[in-house]
């Protein structure tokens, strides 16, 4: 009887150990998820400080966006290294990124660039902004559809290196444009120009990656038996 109880306890302890990663992964609130929630919570403050006059508003706004960009990388790094991935975190992370980026693009489009070399060109940021936001909405719908079709299609639309380059140039462009939005002449015009160029490069990479994803999806669909 005692021997049977010991075997049973040993079996339970083994099952508990093997199920620990699954339990950790199913936690609703992990450190990466808390960082992601922090990014979402910072958006109202980000919007409010954008309309503050003077250099203080610019510094605070740029700092908030830069911190959001850093935590975007950090929460993914922590989730992978410390095995803190969760279903809720995987859902929330891209949503937080899209909300922050979309809010930034819309806000920047509300104020034309006050740089002499560009003149009054209100459409200068509108074109890449519409391209980036439109691509993100379309890709979200495409990934949702792919998830309902099976794992093979879902693997095709997973984030690739091209998407990472798009994100990197996009974040850098927005940081530059936020930091220099109140500069109107002289040296900063070069920085503003580099920010605009990077934003157009990001928009181009967005379209390119969308074409790549679409082409890969078509290949998978053609290979499937009818």
In summary, what is this structure?
The protein has 226 residues and is mostly helical. The chain is built from eight helices and no strands. It has two domains: 82 residues, CDP-alcohol phosphotransferase transmembrane (TM) domain (Four Helix Bundle (Hemerythrin (Met), subunit A)); 113 residues, no CATH class.
What key phrases describe this protein's structure?
mainly alpha, Four Helix Bundle (Hemerythrin (Met), subunit A), 8 helices, 0% strand, disordered N terminus, CDP_ALCOHOL_P_TRANSF_CS, EC 2.7.8.5, membrane
Strand count, sense and barrel status of the largest sheet are: none
The best one-word shape is globular
Beta strand count = 0
Report the β-strand fraction as a percent range.
under 5%
Helix fraction by DSSP (H/I, runs of at least 4): over 70%
* Secondary-structure element string: HHHHHHHH
| The number of domains | 2
Query: What is the arithmetic mean of pLDDT?
Result: 79
The DSSP helix count reads 8
Subcellular location: Membrane
Transmembrane segments: 28-52, 58-78, 189-213
Keywords: Lipid biosynthesis, Lipid metabolism, Membrane, Phospholipid biosynthesis, Phospholipid metabolism, Transferase, Transmembrane, Transmembrane helix
Membrane topology: Multi-pass membrane protein
């Amino acid at each position: 009887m005692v021997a049977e109880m010991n075997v049973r306890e040993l079996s339970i302890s083994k099952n508990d150990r093997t199920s620990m990663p699954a339990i950790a992964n199913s936690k609703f609130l992990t450190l990466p998820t808390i960082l992601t929630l922090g990014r979402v919570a910072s958006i109202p403050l980000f919007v409010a400080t954008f309309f503050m006059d003077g250099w203080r508003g610019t510094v605070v706004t740029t700092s908030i966006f830069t911190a959001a960009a850093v935590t975007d990388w950090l929460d993914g790094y922590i989730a992978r290294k410390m095995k803190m991935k969760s279903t809720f975190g995987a859902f929330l992370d891209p949503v937080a990124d899209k909300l922050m980026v979309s809010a930034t693009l819309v806000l920047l489009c509300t104020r034309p660039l006050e740089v002499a070399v560009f003149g009054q060109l209100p459409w200068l940021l509108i074109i890449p902004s519409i391209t980036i936001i439109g691509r993100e909405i379309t890709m979200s719908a495409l990934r949702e559809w792919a998830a309902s079709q099976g794992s093979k299609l879902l693997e095709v639309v997973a984030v690739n290196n091209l998407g990472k380059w798009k994100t990197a140039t996009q974040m850098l462009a927005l940081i530059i444009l936020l930091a220099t939005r109140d500069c109107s002449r002289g040296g900063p015009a070069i920085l503003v120009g580099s920010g605009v160029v990077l934003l157009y490069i990001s928009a181009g990479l967005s379209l390119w990656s969308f074409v790549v994803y679409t082409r890969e999806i078509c290949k998978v669909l053609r290979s499937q038996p009818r």
